[in-house]
Amino acid sequence: MTPTSSSALEISLPDSTRERGSELPVLGFDSAAVMSRIDALAEKHEGHDDTFRSAMAQLLKAELVRARDVAQAELLNERHGRRTAERLCALHDAIIRILYTTATKHLYRSPTPSDSERMAIVATGGYGRGLMAPESDIDLLFVLPYKQTAWGEQVAEVILYCLWDMGLKVGHATRTVNECIRQALADMTIRTAILESRYLIGDRHLYDELMMRFDKDVVQGTASEFVAAKLAEREERLTRAGQSRYLVEPNVKDGKGGLRDLHTLFWIAKYVYRVRDASELVKRGIFDAVEYRTFRRCEDFLWSVRCNIHFQTNRAEERLSFDIQREIAQRLGYTEHPGMQDVERFMKHYFMVARQVGGLTAILCAKLEEQEAKPAPVLNRVMARLRPHKRRGKIAGTEDFIVDNARINLAAPNVFKHDPVNLIRIFRLAQKNNLDFHPDAMRAVTRSLNLITPQVRDNPEANALFMEILTSPDAETVLRRMNETGVLGQFIRTFGKIVSMMQFNMYHHYTVDEHLIRCVGILQEIEAGTHEEFALANDLFKKIRPEHRSVLYMAVFLHDIAKGRPEDHSIAGAKVARRLCPRFGFNAAETELIAWLIQEHLTMSTVAQSRDLSDRKTIENFAAVVQSVEQMKLLTILTTADIRGVGPAVWNGWKAQLLRTLYYETEPALTGGFSEVNRARRVDVAHAEFRNAFSDWPEAELDAYISRQYPAYWLKVDLPRKIHHARFIKSADASGKKLAIEVGFEEGRAVTELTLLAPDHPWLLSIVAGACAANGANIVDAQIYTTTDGLALDTIAISREYDRNEDEARRASRIGEMIEQVLEGKVRLPEVMARRTQARAKTKVFVVEPEVVINNQWSDVYTVIEVTGLDRPGLLYQLTTAISKLSLNIGSAHVATFGERVRDVFYVTDLMGAQITAPTRQAAIKRALVHLLANPDTTRGVA
Description:
Blueprint: H1 31-44, H2 49-78, H3 81-107, E1 120-123, H4 125-128, E2 138-144, H5 150-165, E3 170-176, H6 177-186, H7 188-195, E4 198-202, H8 204-219, H9 223-241, H10 259-273, H11 280-283, H12 289-313, H13 322-331, H14 342-370, H15 376-382, E5 392-395, E6 398-404, E7 407-410, H16 415-418, H17 422-432, E8 436-437, H18 439-447, H19 454-457, H20 460-471, H21 475-485, H22 487-491, H23 493-496, H24 512-528, H25 535-543, H26 549-558, H27 569-580, H28 588-599, H29 603-610, H30 616-626, H31 629-646, H32 653-670, H33 679-693, H34 699-707, H35 711-716, H36 719-735, E9 740-746, E10 751-759, H37 764-774, E11 779-786, E12 791-799, H38 805-823, H39 829-835, H40 841-844, E13 851-855, E14 863-870, H41 875-885, E15 888-898, E16 901-910, H42 919-934, H43 939-942
Parallel strand pairs: 2-3, 7-8
Antiparallel strand pairs: 1-2, 1-4, 5-6, 6-7, 9-10, 10-12, 11-12, 11-15, 13-14, 14-16, 15-16
Helix pairs in contact: 1-2, 1-3, 2-3, 2-5, 3-5, 3-12, 6-7, 6-8, 9-10, 10-14, 12-13, 12-14, 13-14, 17-20, 17-21, 21-24, 24-25, 24-26, 24-31, 25-31, 26-28, 27-28, 29-32, 30-32, 31-32, 37-38, 37-39, 37-41, 41-42
């Protein structure tokens, strides 16, 4: 009930947020009782206004805390987020009404108010919508008839200072009606705030005058301007928050498919169609009943998530970050299922809701276009799909679809019912004719998903059309539209199981379905050869057998299809491929090749990043897996697309060089010694590239430097890093220092790189790792080389801690100083490490089962220890220290971090240089390292 007089104190839900015919109880807050207590305080402290105001603020704060506790309990019990937001809003309405009444009754009473002593208090912005998250701001507008008076200033001051004393965040403005109109015309943010305004208390006529003038002087005739501005604002917001709605740490408020998208949708509807409540969108023919229910369901879910985040974090946190996702999932009642954690089920639901929000936005845009509510020039830049150039006509080869404003649309309402294969054909025709999709057509597709029956899935033409889509230009865009409409998951049911599925780890940036679709797009970039970063894959794509092109596309599309199952997803995915591929026209040999690629899609990345590529046994073992050069070419291309598709900055020059080295080292083993580019020749080519980059160096100096690096270095390191190393070593030699450290910044990966040159030392890696950990630096990967003259050349990448490079450089200097002090015996690392703080909070939410594998088959010389566990600061130091204390020598180490998961591989021997063969000794090593991984406080045990 909206109050109509200044004495209305009853707490009730705003008109736009209250269910018809019901008065919801609001958090145990009794306005009348509270007002009576404030009256008593006024009487008690009469003549002492400051004391009275302080006592009133304390009283209201206590009541607010109690009501918020009730709100949280009701949210956990009912799990109804929108209702909680309504109740919290109504609670604050009541407090503001009480404060206004108190100010005008006890503090600044005006028995015969003049015409200027009038004020309307108006809720604006999100608060004006009648929905409020627990930690949201209160936005108030004090509307005056004329310029500010002493009375108006005093009343506003009482209200604001008391709200601030209660710990609330308040945004406010004091304006006359004329000022409101003038500023709304000039500023779209103010215009939107007034659009959502809601009368709270005070002079109702002032509020009514404001809204009448706003409608007449601001809104009328400006719908297209407002729509264009709001859509442009949305594009800018999504660019800041991340364009994909499938980012695994989404922003619930500002991210794509979040609450702000629903707000934008309703702002536009309210401005253009003059609706007051979302339910009116059905009467206006914008949504049907099913779509309106979807709108309310999405809104309630997102409000539930947002309110729970605020209560859980006790701040206005809008990002659903990893460290709170599990708690929010449990607060919402999600449970674990086979193959999927509770948090993964929750996030799958979240991404499905985000997709539905996108569908609702498209429906409104279609309606706007139909009614010509926007100007073409502006909106074409903002939302190119909304209204391209006018063009209508037929599409060659079909009578079921037409071109409508350069987009594909239905020729008749029943085209899908008439021929359900049209649900696939529409996407292929759009792709083939370079047409965008009309929102009305996509709406009809979504409503017709039940027509995709087993008969359609087995239809040869439908499956042939899908293969054309998958292997033709712009496949990524078309597949994404198929996914967003639900066609892809309905047509390929196994794909439907991974739609909106997230993996609860810090490595993957996107949901599984979005990752697969992105990988297809990357594969097309590789085929086009447009990106030099994929140089090896670009070259190999030109050399694969033509009939394997479609094999590769299908393998990329399906490589993670079995995620979320109890069984290993690579093995389960191969089984899915064997069942699925014959349907798409693949013969038995092609089907088996696709299954093999899926089963081995992680192998090449694992070997390249965590094995010694100069060890002959590594190459022989990998050759035994890939079996032929053709299969290795296909696997290399798939691996490249997979790593690049994980997320920004995951692919880099170092990983590209490792894959290139593994490929060319393995090729001779598969060809009986013959290689297109044999090892010696590749080393010579690397030398020549290096010489060309240093034409200013004397020949003798170049020869001497080249001889300082082993052949494996020239093959495993990319040219930019070789150039950097050479300049660094030359500078270090000139300085005459025993230890030299240089700092670099790779902002794309959010890491700081330390390049270190020092006399080689059995404990050097452990010392470096300990110095990093002692300074709070977490090592994410390490590239370790030894020169022929006995120097260690190491590049250590540590997680970035500071925004400013200068601060990072100072931290790196401290690390360098500590390494030098330890080498000189001035500092004992065990003592330093015993005092340091453990485990960063970000990884505490993850569980990685510790695993230690000890293997003598991966090398003829070394025993290989592969360690997998939850990453934490100081772990590499602990591992290397423990290995040394187990009387083992580390020949080489291969350090890699995948989000929160660390995989470190150590090539070791005993003190006599022999492999570890005794089962009891192996068991003791494994037991010690598993214990270390499982117990973060093991520092003291190994020190």
